[in-house]
Amino acid sequence: MTNSNSIVVIIPARYASTRFPGKPLVLINGKTMIQCVYDQVKSTPEISEVIVATDDDRIEAEVIRFGGKVVRTKPEHPSGTDRCFEAYQQLNKKYDFIINVQGDEPFIQPQQIRTLAGILKPDTQLATLIKIIEDEETLFNTNTPKVVINTDGEALYFSRQTIPYLRQFSDKNDWLKQHTFYKHIGMYAYRPDVLEKITQLAPSSLELSESLEQLRWLENGYRIQTAITDIETIGIDTPEDLLKAIQKINK
User: Fold this and answer.
1) What pTM did the predictor assign?
2) Which superfamily, per CATH, for 7-240?
3) Within 13 Å, how many C-alpha atoms sit on residue 48's CB side?
4) Which of 36, 74, 147, 228 could serve as 106's disulfide partner, Cβ 3.0–4.6 Å?
5) What residue spans define the domains of the chain?
6) What is the pLDDT of residues 178-197, one digit of tens each?
7) Long-range contacts of range 133-139, CB-CB < 8 Å, 24 or more positions apart?
8) How far apart are the C-alpha atoms of 208 and 205, rounded to whole Å?
């Protein structure tokens, strides 16, 4: 895959977490989580530069220790998107696109980043990854955002509910056989001018209803292009998630 875009990946990382404080600094097979994420991104050929954006002394010190690049951002950002934009402003350097890779995705694969980078064109406003849902637990799990797309692969809507609702099939056990459902993988690419604009938008009614930030962008008329990956992601929200992930990886 060739890509002529200049792309910076920004990894927002906070120490504070309700369910897992200090998450970026936990050790995974001898490396901190934030270094695992950084190393995976760094090994992706399409990426021009990798930056960690944090508001915490401990995370900053760890990134410096392993030789990564880090910028300090304000602590009060409501989302990783806002933190990414402040970090981008501090770079004083122009890129065609910014990719936001979450700091709690230590098992992110370079191929996933390459897939997202591969669909970025000059007229792309925003882009993200999706994956076909293959099991009923994921299909009906309200913690897993779903997405429906149009014929051009642009997102029409995201929801924590299962969408679309298959009205003609009352037995939900048959749904996976009758339709292709997609789950959303929370890695975003932004064109810099679009990133600046979306950080100035007020929270929208749909966003507040579903607690999904990307609905604010759709509600305000922005287009989100999607790319399909067949690689499963393992996000870490709790210590239990981490334990399960390490056991799975070591197998």
Assistant:
1) 0.94
2) Spore Coat Polysaccharide Biosynthesis Protein SpsA; Chain A (3.90.550.10)
3) 14
4) 36
5) 7-240
6) 999 999 999 999 999 999 99
7) 133/176, 133/181, 133/182, 133/183, 134/176, 135/176, 136/172, 136/173, 136/175, 136/176, 138/183, 139/175, 139/176, 139/181
8) 5
